[in-house]
Amino acid sequence: MLPLADSYGRVATDLRVSLTDRCNLRCNYCMPAEGLDWLPGEDVLTDDEVVRLVGIAVQKLGVTEVRFTGGEPLVRRGLVDIVRRTAELRPRPELSLTTNALGLERTAAALAAAGLDRVNVSLDSIRAETFAAITRRDRLSDVLAGLEAARDAGLGPVKVNAVLLRGHNDDQAAELLRWALAEGFQLRFIEQMPLDAQHGWRRDTMVTAEETLALLEREFSLEPAEEPRGSAPAELFSVDGGPATVGIIASVTRPFCGDCDRVRLTADGQVRNCLFAREESDLRGALRAGATDAEIADRWVTAMAGKRAGHGIDDVSFLQPTRPMSAIGG
């Protein structure tokens, strides 16, 4: 077993696999209304290639958690079979899915039967008009139906990820938390990050973690949760004495790079050792050229060794990644 270690002593055991760069929403903080130039079909890893690379990560590199992402992974036709084949790996990794939940109502049961353990659903508002304004699609009812189906299928704990946007939904933080508590979902607020295709992100307009906590504390009593955070990105707070919690992922203002245990594989087979990396390492080319599993594992180890100490957003030399979030995978 070759650990995916970097020069700072961190070891990656959590693999985020993007299955597609395509998405059926057009969230205004992610991509333009007209969408993007999607990857050509021949550039995207096949189902067999995805499963092979995940197998190398699990069986040769010590990965214990695999999360399928996009774009929107539910638009990938082979998703259920990819999940099933990944669940058959030994040792078996923990399997999760990050999704916008469009289509989850009809696929949740099949995904659970295939071996998916849980889902994270991106949802920034439970008001239909706000949801439509942010996503440019009037599909809130489909998302809510997908969340209910995931809960019924046992894909829990169901986590909901929300981004507060100034002037759009920053008045709805407490409303979102009340709803999540009533539904039994675990809510986490994520600071908006500089990963939009338009490169329009500005720190001075971002709703910070401190602001989010202040908004929530107008209606709830929040205390830091007692459980250790470890490498988890969310800082948890007990709500009104617990046991329910709410999470804050302060990627920008309280970076947790020193405890990062994640590595990413893009839909076209590139290793990214950091969400904000501007460099990638090609595994698809080696795989299609006939490289052995051991050779691919060695390439992966080399790619991780060069991981930087942190994302560097606060550095004056910081440059936003060329790829937007939809093409990187969450």
Task: Please provide a written account of the structure.
Helix 2 packs parallel to helix 3 and helix 3 packs parallel to helix 5. The protein has a single domain, classed as TIM Barrel, CATH 3.20.20.70. The radius of gyration is 19 Å and the shape is globular. The strands form 2 sheets. Strands 9-10-11-8-7-6-5-4-3-12-13-14 form a 12-stranded mixed sheet. A two-stranded antiparallel ribbon has the order 1-2. By secondary structure, the protein is of the alpha/beta class. 29% of the residues lie in helices and 17% in strands.
Q: Any idea how many domains?
A: 1
CATH class descriptor name: Alpha Beta
Q: Helical proportion?
A: 25-40%
Total helices: the number is 10
> What is the C-alpha radius of gyration, as a whole number of Å?
19 Å
Q: Tell me the name of the CATH homologous superfamily.
A: Aldolase class I
Shape annotation: globular
Biggest β-sheet: count, sense, barrel? 12 strands, mixed
Features:
twelve-stranded mixed beta sheet; globular; two-stranded antiparallel ribbon; 17% strand; alpha/beta; 330 residues; 10 helices; TIM Barrel
Summarize the entry for a quick read.
The chain is of the alpha/beta class and 330 residues long.
Compile the SSE list and pairings.
Blueprint: E1 4-5, E2 11-12, E3 14-18, H1 47-61, E4 65-69, H2 79-87, E5 94-99, H3 104-114, E6 118-122, H4 128-135, H5 140-152, E7 159-162, H6 173-183, E8 186-190, H7 209-216, E9 222-224, E10 235-239, E11 245-249, E12 262-265, E13 270-272, E14 281-282, H8 284-288, H9 293-305, H10 325-328
Parallel strand pairs: 3-4, 3-12, 4-5, 5-6, 6-7, 7-8, 8-11
Antiparallel strand pairs: 1-2, 9-10, 10-11, 12-13, 13-14
Helix pairs in contact: 1-2, 1-9, 2-3, 3-5
